[in-house]
Amino acid sequence: MKDLNQYVEIYKEELKKGDIQEAYVGLVKYVTGLGTTLSKNLSEHYSFGSLFQGYMDYTYFYFTNDFLKKRKLKMGVVLNHSKMQFEIWLLGQTIPIQEKYWEYFKSTRWNKNRTTRPQYSILETAIIQNPDFNDLEKLSRQIEDKLVLVADEIIQDIKTSKLI
Distance (Å, rounded) from C-alpha 99 to C-alpha 157? Predict the structure, then answer.
């Protein structure tokens, strides 16, 4: 097992190459622009929050509407860096809210492979698994289309859950 000094040396060597910085800045810039685009295109249905860069693990922003707000819920568009995929997360404002909705969602198709609640959310689902960052306009359209579809399905599930 490596100690922190060994990891730091590897980190420094990788930073010298410059590729990690270029990739990270490009990804954050793209997700920032994506949030702006979605905010413009979907403003009748959702309000969008600011970007959170994360710690090279997740880059994300929240979105919500009146239905979700009344239930102390919101959703997130998440770039999962380790899987390099875009995901939608359903989140609760507090741990008790997350636990309440987890009880319902744990036995649904959204969590079919999970036995424990995700660390930060109620559910996490991939919407784009192999993003093509060479065609950002197409990628943004794909994300928008999937976001609308998946968010609508999740909201519909909440409506039929008897939790409201």
Answer: 16
* Nearest Cα residue to 43 out of 65, 73, 74, 71: 65
- Helix (H) or strand (E) holding 33, with range, is helix 19-41
Q: Tell me the C-alpha distance between 110 and 113, whole Å.
A: 8
Cα–Cα distances in angstroms (integers) from residue 55 to residues 28, 81, 112, in the given order:
11, 10, 28
Q: Are 135 and 78 in contact (CB under 8 A)?
A: no
Is 75 within 8 Å of 120 (Cβ atoms)?
no
pLDDT digit string (tens) for the chain, length 164 residues: 889 999 999 999 999 999 999 999 999 999 999 999 999 999 999 999 999 998 899 999 999 999 999 999 999 999 999 999 999 999 999 999 999 999 999 989 998 888 899 999 999 999 999 999 999 999 999 999 999 999 999 999 999 987 76
If you search the block for the tokens 């880059």, which residue do you land on?
59
pTM passes above 0.90 = yes
